[in-house]
């Protein structure tokens, strides 16, 4: 019942979208909507995991907003209007003209959207690459999947500027060596993507660091705790320990901090959706069919995100977050390659699914290894023991057997 409550609206929207496409358009349009929805879901599993790592830091109000207003932004903003804006900027046409093309000359619109792909790939690629780098160099991350790789990078993260420097170097290399005749377009869009990432993430962290929403933490955490206790059988009773695996600094954001986290989620969604929008034109050139199909997929991804948060899945399968971030790093590389070389959608999807699958298997093996231990041993060291078992032991206990 808990899952049905979360996925209920997704099922309703699916029925309305597919039926509407069949009635207004044709049975073929209905089939295309269903296909696009499945493709969007298969390409975005890692997106759902990443979203969940951010959404669990927000209070229930903002989580609900993510499923309501956020879906409208995802469908109409990121998958319908934003591509029009991108085409307008890269083709030097007015938005009204581009919208007219999308409605009345979809073939030419698809061609111009394809011409804008280098800028789209550069913007989304650098944004996702920075997300991946910040994860690798996060000094506060205790759970390690590939210890020999992640531990040295975690220590190097003491220098906060390292991810930005690496991101800039990567952008310059891609712009000069892998962008062909699109160097200026790639560098401009890449700088815009980097600035967007640093600005949105920085503002969110700024307001979180100032304790915005701290007065509401107890109520918010209790509400989340009760949901998790029903779903996963958690025994935590206080706001300070809502989940056995929650980070020790997990404080539910409200106000400005939550608003910037919400914006951050939307930009992440946009970075994932760009390539899907371009690829969708290989299946259909009707922008409303494309928006409906991708929108249904986006709805399921958002429902899955909330489900992961409510069930505490990231706590149970501790390497899922790692797999998602490695998948994002691979996607960023694929986007860079796709500037000059066409990369099949199936490759993009399988790479993300493969990393998630490997992380899931590693998580299951980790749980089995600790199945015979007390709950304090199996859950406590995963994130933080805050003092009871030594500081060296917990990190060793949660590294994957690779």
TrEMBL record:
Q: Where is the composition biased (Low complexity)?
A: 229-240
Q: What InterPro entries does the annotation carry? A: DUF475
- Tell me which domain of life the UniProt entry assigns to the organism this sequence originates from: Bacteria
- Report TM segments: 31-54, 66-91, 119-137, 250-268, 280-301, 322-340, 346-365
Membrane as UniProt keyword: yes
Biased-composition ranges, Acidic residues, are 214-228
List the keywords (alphabetical). Answer: Membrane, Transmembrane, Transmembrane helix
Q: Where is this region: Disordered?
A: 214-247, 370-402
A Pfam family reported for this protein in Swiss-Prot or TrEMBL: DUF475
**Keyword field contains Membrane:** yes
Report what the protein is called.
Answer: DUF475 domain-containing protein
Q: What is the species of this protein? A: Candidatus Frankia alpina
């Amino acid at each position: 019942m808990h899952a049905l409550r979360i996925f209920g609206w997704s099922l309703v929207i699916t029925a309305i979208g597919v039926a509407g496409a069949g009635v207004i358009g044709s049975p073929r349009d209905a089939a295309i909507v269903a296909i696009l929805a499945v493709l969007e879901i298969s390409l975005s599993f890692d997106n759902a995991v990443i979203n969940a790592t951010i959404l669990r830091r927000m209070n229930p109000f903002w989580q609900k907003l993510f499923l309501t207003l956020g879906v409208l932004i995802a469908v109409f903003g990121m998958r319908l209007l934003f591509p029009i804006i991108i085409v307008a900027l890269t083709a030097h046409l007015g938005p009204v003209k581009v919208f007219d093309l999308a409605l009345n000359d979809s073939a030419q619109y698809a061609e111009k959207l394809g011409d804008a792909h280098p800028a789209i790939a550069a913007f989304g690629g650098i944004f996702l690459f920075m997300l991946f780098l910040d994860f690798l160099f996060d000094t506060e991350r205790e759970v390690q999947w590939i210890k020999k790789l992640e531990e040295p990078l975690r220590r190097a993260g003491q220098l906060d500027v390292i991810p930005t420097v690496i991101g800039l170097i990567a952008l310059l290399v891609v712009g000069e060596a892998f962008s062909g005749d699109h160097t200026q377009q790639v560098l401009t869009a890449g700088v815009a993507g980097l600035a967007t990432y640093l600005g949105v993430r920085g503002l969110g962290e700024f307001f979180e660091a100032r304790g915005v929403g701290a007065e509401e933490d107890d109520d918010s955490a209790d509400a989340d705790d009760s949901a998790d206790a029903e779903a996963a059988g958690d025994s935590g009773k206080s706001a300070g320990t809502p989940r056995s695996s929650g980070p020790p600094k997990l404080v539910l954001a409200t106000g400005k901090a939550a608003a910037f986290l919400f914006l951050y989620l939307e930009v992440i969604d946009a970075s994932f959706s760009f390539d899907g929008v371009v690829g969708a034109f290989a299946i259909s050139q009707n922008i409303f069919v494309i928006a409906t199909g991708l929108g249904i997929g986006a709805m399921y991804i958002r429902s899955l995100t909330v489900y992961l948060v409510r069930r505490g899945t990231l706590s149970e399968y501790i390497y899922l977050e790692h797999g998602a971030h490695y998948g994002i790093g691979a996607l960023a590389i694929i986007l860079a390659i796709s500037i000059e070389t066409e990369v099949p959608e199936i490759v993009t999807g399988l790479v993300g699914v493969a990393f998630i699958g490997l992380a899931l298997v590693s998580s299951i093996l980790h749980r089995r290894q600790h199945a015979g231990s007390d709950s304090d041993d199996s859950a406590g060291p995963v994130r933080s023991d805050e003092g009871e078992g030594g500081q060296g032991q917990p990190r060793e206990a949660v590294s994957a057997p690779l």
